[in-house]
Amino acid sequence: MTHRMLKQEVKHRIHVVFDRESKGMQMHYPQMESHLEEESPLENCLAQLNRLVGLTQIREFVKEIYAWLEINKRRRAVGLMTEQQVLHMVFTGNPGTGKTTVARILAQLFKEIGILSKGHLIEVERADLVGEYIGHTAQKTREHVKKALGGILFIDEAYSLARGGEKDFGKEAIDTLVKSMEDYRNHFILILAGYSEEMEYFLRMNPGLPSRFPIHLHFPDFSKEQLMQITEKMLRERQYRLSLAAAEKFKNHLINMVSKSDQPFGNARYIRNVIEQAIRHHAVRLLRMRYPSKDELMTIHSEDLVFSSHRKEQKVHSWYN
């Protein structure tokens, strides 16, 4: 398959790498195709994924997960053996590549097909789990696990839990999560997310973790073409558009940003920040006009786009978090 790589490095662990540059390929299930097309849970999830840019291969992966779970249910119904369905996952990739969005959609899908009872997503990071004194961390972590029961617990920058070494309270959070995975088996799904290299090191430093997370998904950065599609989509949703000069300026800026592969810039999250700033500049400019036309009220000009050289990430909520 050219659109992704599957590597069976250890038993029951799946590594999936999504190639955003590929055109996508159709996958067929001869005896199940018509059944899958009739199922509303899958169609609902694909409809949400279809609103996103650059996630063609993820739609195929979701389809495979759905088919696997559905066939296991049918095998059990006729008395055949099925494997234990462990769905804890690791998401790797830079910020703004769709990790949180996919987790949210998966939570809904798993609820619809009976894997999860609620289908909600609880998003946390180190500060939400790690306490200030002995015992506090375990208490905070258990509270978030209980909130996630029936859904997905999504830990962003999960590698930060191990940054402080053996004496850091982050280790207590890890131990509590592992125990909760046993205590609440099949009652929630845990997803660890973060940068690729940091997550690889994190899992390597915690030998007991990798076997507990059978599915590894990697989200590559968006291409400049896909970033332009995201830009146009975000503007269209807000009933704005770029002038020809502004579109050319934005495109050239993205080419420059993408070429600096050693300096990740937040992908779609960065696009959202730039657009919101441009809309504010657009408003200030139009305020000087007495009677702006409808076209002027909708059009972002080149002068409204200001690209700061300061590239520090700011956490914002968006479809592509």
UniProtKB/TrEMBL annotation:
Q: Which family does it belong to?
A: Belongs to the CbxX/CfxQ family.
Protein's name according to its UniProt entry:
Stage V sporulation protein K
What organism is recorded for this protein? Thermoflavimicrobium daqui
Q: Residues in domain AAA+ ATPase? A: 85-223
PANTHER family found in the cross-reference section:
AAA-TYPE ATPASE FAMILY PROTEIN / ANKYRIN REPEAT FAMILY PROTEIN (PTHR43392), AAA-TYPE ATPASE FAMILY PROTEIN _ ANKYRIN REPEAT FAMILY PROTEIN (PTHR43392:SF2)
Instruction: Identify the Pfam families for this entry.
Output: AAA, AAA_lid_6
> InterPro entries recorded for this chain?
AAA+_ATPase (IPR003593), AAA_lid_6 (IPR041627), ATPase_AAA_core (IPR003959), CbxX/CfxQ (IPR000641), CbxX/CfxQ_RuBisCO_ESX (IPR050773), P-loop_NTPase (IPR027417), Spore_V_K (IPR014232)
Which of UniProt's keywords are assigned here? ATP-binding, Nucleotide-binding
Q: Which GO terms describe its molecular function?
A: ATP binding; ATP hydrolysis activity
